């Protein structure tokens, strides 16, 4: 019972985070702001970062402790994303990337700092631009994580729907109308007490690409992709189980698995659905690439492309599975439901990108990598809106050296060890940030 309660509480908090930004989204569509410049004002122990914008910004600040630390500023409806820029003071560099339906500014820290204050200066005294200001002061990584803002959105109806175990006090009239589903509301404050779940195992779903009647690509020496992905998946599962703290689920267990469906489309849908049903905290699909130019070799990591979000919602609706984190979005107004789905997918894509970056960092030096290692695509197995997911092309089976690696137990152990290290690092970073954010609330 306690394990179930911990898992439920964890899903509640994930839902709270996933639906962050809903209030802004429901407030109406504002005209897009334009980023004009990013400026830095360094001091002895502090740095001021100023984003100059032509229009009021809609944003949220977050971050992680990778390297000396990173601060993310997610802008909604931002035009003029800008190019990379060398930083000053605590900031080594600023770069920009499209994320979901907005733009993410990534501030790479040169030395660890915490956020002292974030505020917007509106146009005044002849200054026509808006200025988003972030003040940093020197601190350790714990201070950085603790200083990251926490959004608490008004999603009372969603929380009630997910829990179901702790009904609020009802009046006789409410009891009489218990059979009438209430209209979901987003205007009631909800406080969810933090619950520690130290012993809760993370669910990792490993997908050995292809299998059964679908052999995948074939190497010059006759090696089938389905065989190499199965061997790699088994090794990764073995490593994760040995480390403890993980519940490992494989989408197939052999090339003769009866669960493998004759239609590739249906089979890919089955694997994505399996991950969601298992309550996966992370999904990784293993593949081996192939190309007619046999000299090309190296690994790459795919995450879902921004343009695939509409397809994800369409697929979910067509399958009668229009929900995120056990919240049935069909019970909401169509506009609200679509917004919640989009928010969930945007956040999931951000988490997927974070894991992809860790994966690329840990694989470097362990196996050859493509120059542009992080790629994006409209891939069916990555469409789950509430499961962070990546597809790892381990190597090019069409390259003789890569094919030999794919068949090598030594290479397999080293490479899957790097993948396991990335999974550890991903969940450790998630845990540290969550605990740092909860610490002030726990002490109140």
UniProtKB/TrEMBL annotation:
Q: Which GO terms describe its molecular function?
A: N-acetylmuramoyl-L-alanine amidase activity
Xref: SMART domains:
Ami_3
Q: Can you state which reaction this protein catalyses?
A: Hydrolyzes the link between N-acetylmuramoyl residues and L-amino acid residues in certain cell-wall glycopeptides
Q: What is its EC number?
A: 3.5.1.28
Which InterPro entries does this entry report, sorted A to Z? MurNAc-LAA_cat, N-acetylmuramoyl_amidase_3
- Transferase: present as a keyword of the record? no
Q: Which residues form the signal peptide?
A: 1-32
Instruction: List the transmembrane segments.
Output: none
What is an example of a Pfam family matching this protein?
Amidase_3
Cross-referenced PANTHER family, in alphabetical order? N-ACETYLMURAMOYL-L-ALANINE AMIDASE, N-ACETYLMURAMOYL-L-ALANINE AMIDASE AMIC
Q: What is this protein called?
A: N-acetylmuramoyl-L-alanine amidase
